[in-house]
Amino acid sequence: MEEADAEEKGRNGLAEKRTDWAERRTDWAEDRTIMANERTFAGWMRTGLAAVGIALGFNALFGMLEPAWLPKALATTFILAAIAIFFAAQKKAAEVADRLECHKAKPMRGASLRLIAAAMIVASTGLVAAIWLLDPLPR
C-alpha cells in the first residue's frame, strides 16, 4: 500500500511540475505576443511616416505644376492615407495591448499607443494645412 501511495505522489509531483512548466511557457508566449504587437505597431507607424514623406516629396518635386491645386491634392491624399494608417494602427495595437496580460515584459499600454498615434495625426494634419496655406518658394 505504501508503495502505491509513493508512486501516486510521484506521479502527482511530476504532473504538477509539468503543469508549472506549461503555465510558464504560456506566460512567455503571451509576453512574446505583447512584444510582437509593439513591433507591428511600430511597423505601421513607419508605413504612415513613409506616406507622409512621399506626400512631402511629391509636393516639393511637382509643386510648380499647373493647375496649382493638383500637387497639393495628391500630397493631401497621401497624408490622409497616413492618418488612416496611424489611426488603424493605434486602434488594433491598443485592442491587443489591453487584452493581454504581461508577465515579465514591460509593455506600452494602450494609452501610450494612442498618444503616439495622436501626435502623428496632429502633425500630419498640420502638414496638410501648411501645404494648402503656404505659398511655395519661387524658383
Structural account:
- Helix 2 runs antiparallel to helix 3.
- This protein has three helices and no strands.
- The protein has helices at 2-62, 69-99, 110-133.
- It is mainly α.
- It has one domain (2-133).
Number of structural domains = 1
Low confidence ranges = none
SSE string, helices as H and strands as E: HHH
**Over all CA atoms, what is the radius of gyration?**
26 Å
How many helices? The count is 3
What is the count of β-strands? 0
Q: How much beta, percentage-wise?
A: under 5%
Mean pLDDT, all residues: 82
Helix content: over 70%
The class by helix and strand makeup works out as mainly alpha
* Cα-to-Cα separation, first versus last residue: 99 Å
Oligomer: single chain
Largest sheet: none
Inertia-based shape: rod-shaped
Name some characteristics of this structure:
single chain, 83% helix
Q: What is the structure about, briefly put?
A:
This protein has one domain. It is 83% helix and 0% strand. It is rod-shaped, with a radius of gyration of 26 Å.
